[in-house]
Amino acid sequence: MRWPLTRVGKAHRAPSVGFMQPWNFLVVGSPADKPRVHDVFRTAEAEGLSPDDRRALYSRMKPQEILELPINQCITCDRSRSGPVVLGRTHMLSMGLYSSVCAVQNLWLAARAEGLGVGWVSIFEQQALQDALGIPHDIVPIACLCVGWVSHFNNRPELETCGWLPRLPLAELLHYEQWGSTMRTSPDEALTAAACAQRPRTTAFHRRPGSTCPPA
Ligand SMILES: Cc1cc2nc3c(=O)[nH]c(=O)nc-3n(C[C@H](O)[C@H](O)[C@H](O)COP(=O)(O)O)c2cc1C
Is the CB of 112 under 6 A from ligand 1? Predict the structure, then answer.
């Protein structure tokens, strides 16, 4: 399988706090290297798996993607990149980590647009994964992604279909003005009202086709 640089390039175009671009991309494709990653996964899986009633369900669901798919890719975060002062990160140091997650999402969407499947494997003990891949201990492995051609895409997440957990109702996750306050109107009406209230007060406001805001 080819691993075009353009795909990684799309991940590299992700937004990042203070433009620190804290990521690196480690591509693991050789049959010699993948079993080491797989061993780290298996150890963590055996140590950490959930209660027994879920174990049987889990073992039915999980393919051994790490070995089966041609490419594993590890996206990392160098939290010290571009020095101690990073615009936008002063009060929340975790913003560097979140920036690397944006790169993961970009790569995921780029792969998916090409018809490639992506699975994020996070059942790893961090230091064991760093050692298996030669990653320095001050560099955080954010995501190990298994990428490859798949027979089909599910319409719904596998964990939802198999009854692991249900999709939460969106309305239960929405708050209005203050955390915990309920909607005074329907969520749709509340969001539309908020969006319309923000529009520029000029006649040059572009009203897109299908806009639910009344004309200015
Ligand atoms: C942060 C994160 C961590 C994940 N970790 C795992 C994991 O360790 N093992 C796994 O099988 N899936 C994991 N997933 C989910 C898979 O990547 C899954 O393949 C993906 O959500 C797409 O499949 P779906 O449409 O069935 O959800 C994780 C997803 C995210 C966003």
Answer: no
Instruction: Give the confidence band of 35 by pLDDT, cuts at 50, 70, 90.
Output: confident
To 10 degrees, what angle do helices 5-12 and 95-113 make?
140
Ligand 1 atom 19, closest CA? 119
Question: How many CB atoms are closer than 10 A to CB 131?
Answer: 13
Band of residue 6 on the pLDDT scale cut at 50, 70, 90: confident
Single pTM value for the model: 0.84
CA distance 78 to 156: 34
What residues pair up with 116 in beta bridges, in sequence order?
Answer: 149
Of 22-36, 159-173, 185-199, give the lowest mean pLDDT range. 185-199
Q: Which atom of ligand 1 is nearest to the CA of 158?
A: 26
What does the block give as tokens for 153?
């895409």
Average pLDDT score, the chain: 85
Whether the CB of 121 sits within 6 Å of ligand 1 = yes
Pocket of ligand 1, candidates 37, 74, 108, 120: which has the most ligand atoms within 8 Å of its Cβ, to mutate? 120
The finding on whether 50 has its CB within 6 A of some atom of ligand 1 is no
Asked if residues 144 and 124 have their Cβ atoms less than 8 Å apart, the reply is yes
Please give the angle made by the CA atoms of 195, 199 and 204, to the nearest 5 degrees. 145
Mean pLDDT of 139-164: 92
Token duo for residue 2: 């080819």
Give the single-character DSSP code of 71.
E
CA–CA distance, 64 with 37 (Å, rounded to integer): 12
